[in-house]
Give the backbone structure.
Amino acid sequence: MKKTLYILSLILFVSATLITSCKRSFLDVPPQGQLTQEQALIDPVAADKLVGGVYNTLYLQGTVGLKFAIVGDVTSDNSDKGSVDSDPGFDGIFLDAFTYTPNTAIFNDLWNDNYFGISRANKALGILNSSTIDETTKNRLIGEVRFIRALLYFNLVREFGGVIKLVDAPDPTQANGDAYQTKSTAAEIYQVIVDDLKFGADNLPLKGESGAVVGRATKGAAQGLLSKVYLYQENWQGAYDMSLAVMNSNKYDLGGNYAEVFREVGANNIESVFEVQTGNFATQTTTGISCDAISKNYSNFQGPRGTFGSQTVNGKTYTGGDLGFGLNTPSANLAAAYPTGDVRRAGTIIFTSATATTTLWDGFVLPTRPSVVNERYNYKGYHSPFLESNSCNGINDKDNKPKNIRILRFAEVLLINAEAATHVGQDASSPLRRVRSRAGLTTISATVADIWNERRLELAMEGDRFFDLVRTKQASAVMNALGKPFITGKHEVFPIPQQQRDLSGGRLVQNPNY
């Protein structure tokens, strides 16, 4: 696996706004003696490191990590809060029951983390736009930053609807003005996203071409994400055209083994359109070496929970007890949704038993219940202590498993193309057939409902299910059928965090019915 591209030492020119609110001043954190703004204006290497600092915001759990996965899965029919009853699970207990409020902490975390990344992107863009480096390199770097900003705004608009539109780094004296304390409409935010991704599609290299770096945004990533954005806007022709462009680039295909796509061996493989690179960071502190990873807690908090003994596999001994906290567990409803012969079921869900042990793909043995707490766990979140890379703290460090987080796969591009094709009179059967064939299934009709169901099974436990249910207007019927009190006109978006409303002096208007 390619080790991390986004080293913590490259956190440069940090604009420290929006850690609590955009009411805070837009401040620059000193670059720890590594680079100056003047260097980034004239030196391509320094400018590239500046962009690396923007990528590094993706290590925050509320951008693409654990907390994003929890809000996208636990609020759906695919997942339960998991763990033990007494574990609130990053507010999963409220998400699962739709009893959350504007004071529920995870929403403030999502807001802060995404706006922190947007703020840093805006600061970098201000520097890059004034840079005198060659135009091709300059536009590529700007395209990468705008791709990340688009990704973060896509998170926010799906989570909260209309939000504050920040496309620059304002002077501190302006930060308390109405423009930075009031919401734009969802349509206005979507326009920022589309503009950013169009720029990326026009200026980023294709995967594998000169200038393309493993783990960084490419033309295909921008086109692929844009096709997904168009799906949410019901711009069917745009979604079809952009997904087809990715397909016709001949840079992507389905990985051969579904389960392996989510293991270290599948990192950055031919199916990967964009994934967040992770790894270990050894940082000298006053008390010794501190170890960290971009996907911090992603595997640990979703790992099997219970009372386990030590185990030795492949010459390595694990004495860390269980594998995690057992949050975000696949639901019985999801487990029952897979048709007979669908290999994705076993590649997505770890099944435990009350009468027999469970051996994972790497040889790790889970005990019987109740020594292992939950009936099911997210296999896509599992990172092997025996056969995959470990933390710089060693095999027993569960918090810092270096697992890449898959953001956009070619399988999803095929499904976007199929869904859009049904609306524009094009062939939906062929892309759908490719996805189902890899899953070990036969051809079915390519109706919109069929494709929606295929998205559910193909992308299960990847953080998208709730947003798909809302997008396709199925959320109320699906969740009410499960006894969940989803209220139409309210629960399609989450509440604006109360802390942010307070900091805005009430100018940040709450979403309806909260």
